[in-house]
Amino acid sequence: MDYQNRAGSKFGGGGVASQSATNADRRERLRQLALETIDLDKDPYFFKNHVGSFECRLCLTVHQNDGSYLAHTQGRKHQTNLARRHAREQKEGKDRDASQMIGLLSGGPAKKPGVYKIGVPGYRVTKIRDPQTRQNGLLFQLEFPEILPNVVPKVRFMSAFEQKVEDPDKNFQYFLVAADPYETIGFKLQAREIDRGEGKYYTWFDEDSKDFWVQLMFKTERDERYSAVPGLAPLRR
């Protein structure tokens, strides 16, 4: 930061920095520090929205550029939320270990002893549309860099009445992806029927990059409404 050539200061002397200049210098130093320790491609809380801004999924904040996000990650709010999340995950891990021990003592089945959860995977969700049928859909990309050998992620659709996290709402369903040693991650979707036709729904796991891809397309309103009507031909594509 140039303290010498600031307007109003003598040669060789550092004038008093304004508040805005001090804040700008602090943000730049935090950004440089974050660049040395954070890889945005592997940050599970980093998300670029549809308008080009950057969001922190942990703190629910919006930033205009990656530098602002990086500076935010070094701030007190983000660090406090990280500490709280870490403490909660540790507590949940202890509770899970205790429940497994109770099951073993009572003669119940063991739940994969020796596998410790390491948090949720990084993910990206993209809205897609079939140019021919105009069907809406979603493309999921999940990152499992530390997945166990010979393990392939598994997917499951769950109704709102199966889950115990929030009050059931018949207008929604849940899409779950599980792969040890990661926590099972869930996405809340509209309660619409999934088109499982050829090329509409598929899963693919890249053994090299450890990325897991899932594409799903929702049926059109016509197909949902008349698919169970006998004698009615499906919509031609």
TrEMBL record:
Cellular component terms per the entry's GO annotation: catalytic step 2 spliceosome; U2 snRNP; U2-type prespliceosome
Region (Disordered): 1-25, 74-97
UniProtKB keywords: Metal-binding, mRNA processing, mRNA splicing, Nucleus, Spliceosome, Zinc, Zinc-finger
Top-rank taxon, per record: Eukaryota
Pfam families registered for this protein in UniProt: SF3A2 (PF16835), zf-met (PF12874)
A single GO molecular function term of this UniProt record: nucleic acid binding
Primary subcellular site in the record, as a coarse category: nucleus
GO biological processes: spliceosomal complex assembly
Protein name stated in the entry: Matrin-type domain-containing protein
Organism (species): Delitschia confertaspora ATCC 74209
